[in-house]
Design brief:
The protein is α/β, with parallel strands linked by helices. The protein has one domain: Rossmann fold, CATH 3.40.50. It is built from ten helices and eight strands. The protein has helices spanning about 1-30, 90-100, 130-145, 155-165, 185-195, 205-215, 225, 245-255, 285-290, 290-305, and strands spanning about 45-55, 60-65, 75-80, 105-110, 150-155, 175-180, 235-240, 260-265. The chain has an eight-stranded mixed β-sheet, with helices on both faces. Helix 8 (about 245-255) links the parallel strand 7 (about 235-240) and strand 8 (about 260-265). Helix 1 (about 1-30) packs across helix 6 (about 205-215), helix 3 (about 130-145) crosses helix 4 and helix 5 packs across helix 6. The longest helix is centred in the N-terminal third of the chain and has 27 residues, at about 1-30. The chain is globular, with a radius of gyration of 20 Å.
């Protein structure tokens, strides 16, 4: 019996360590993927830029891609977690082509601890510390284009980063969020499910620990709570069947905030061979890749209304 009790105690201790320490740490310090492509691959002129985050001695690697059309506005683009500025999951290179073709210049950065940018040693924070990078990048873009309207766009964790940046004083002319990370618990547990196939509910204690001990946003600091308070014009684009950043949270936030214009993209066929390589991530941030014309038309309409004061 003593042996059984000892074994049981060891198993409980191992489970506690795995859920409360190991798993949140693995998510926080997820593998980073260096930026290995350039806009030159898709015939875009660009400039390598290094942006310094004030007070942190951090350097962020970026591309500035000017439009060759009549300038309408400029976009700061923020990628998702464990990604980088060429964001293959989103087909960002094709998106930059579409933006510049429609008269938008683009600044796109590798967030801290991602791509080729510096690490702060503290890992990913679902938009909290990353928001400082967005603030620094937006300041750089304003200095480069002082007379241009500026829009900030974030996908997945980049959406949460943009929301936190606005809450911390960023003031673009408008905000575009695509499948934004709004709820820490669900994105944390569903993200692990995409990697392991294990039931998301199993990792609920790990999500609690991530918020309580590992610096992930909780309560009034979560992006969904901050998004309800946004005052600037915002376009929220949501893939209806996104398995990681759930549409229910996007609809809830949009319904609660009249500053948010909500567009639900068409559903992506689960058997679409273009997305088979993404596995359980499925239609996460798939709106542009699946429906490029509709997505760009929605963004164009939003920008036009903001610039005309009609949002």
């Amino acid at each position: 019996m003593r042996w059984l009790y000892s074994l049981l105690a060891m198993l409980i201790a191992l489970a506690g360590y795995t859920l409360l320490i190991y798993t949140p740490t693995q998510v926080k310090y997820a593998e980073r993927y260096p930026t290995s492509r350039t806009p030159e691959e898709v015939s875009l002129d660009y400039r390598d830029v290094t942006i310094t985050v004030p007070g942190e001695n951090l350097s962020l690697e970026a591309w500035y891609i000017p439009t060759t059309q009549k300038p309408r506005a400029a976009f700061l683009f923020l990628h998702g977690g464990s990604s980088n500025r060429h964001s293959d999951f989103f087909e960002a290179m094709a998106f930059y082509q579409a933006l510049t073709r429609n008269g938008y210049s683009v600044l796109t950065i590798d967030l801290r601890n991602h791509g080729n940018s510096d690490s702060d040693g503290e890992g990913m924070s679902f938009g909290v510390r990353e928001s400082r990078d967005a603030l620094a990048a937006l300041a750089w873009l304003r200095s480069e284009l002082p007379d241009s309207a500026l829009f900030m766009m974030g996908i997945s964790m980049g959406g949460a980063t943009a929301i936190h940046a606005v809450a911390n004083g960023a003031s673009p002319d408008g905000l575009v969020l695509l499948d934004p990370l709004l709820d820490t618990n669900s994105t944390f547990t569903l993200g692990i499910w995409t990697q392991t196939g294990w039931p998301p509910a199993l990792f609920t204690p790990a999500a609690w620990s991530a918020k309580t001990f590992h610096g992930f946003p909780a309560g009034e600091r979560e992006a969904k709570a901050l998004a309800v308070e946004l005052l600037l014009p915002t376009l929220l684009i949501q893939d209806p069947d996104d398995p990681v950043t759930l549409a229910s949270y996007a609809r809830e936030v949009a319904a609660a905030n009249p500053a948010i214009r909500y567009w639900q993209a068409p559903s992506v066929d689960s058997n679409d061979p273009r997305f088979a390589w993404k596995g359980r991530w499925g239609s996460h941030v798939a709106a542009f890749a699946a429906f490029p014309d509709e997505t760009m038309a929605t963004i164009d309409s939003f920008v036009a209304d903001v610039l005309a004061g009609n949002h």
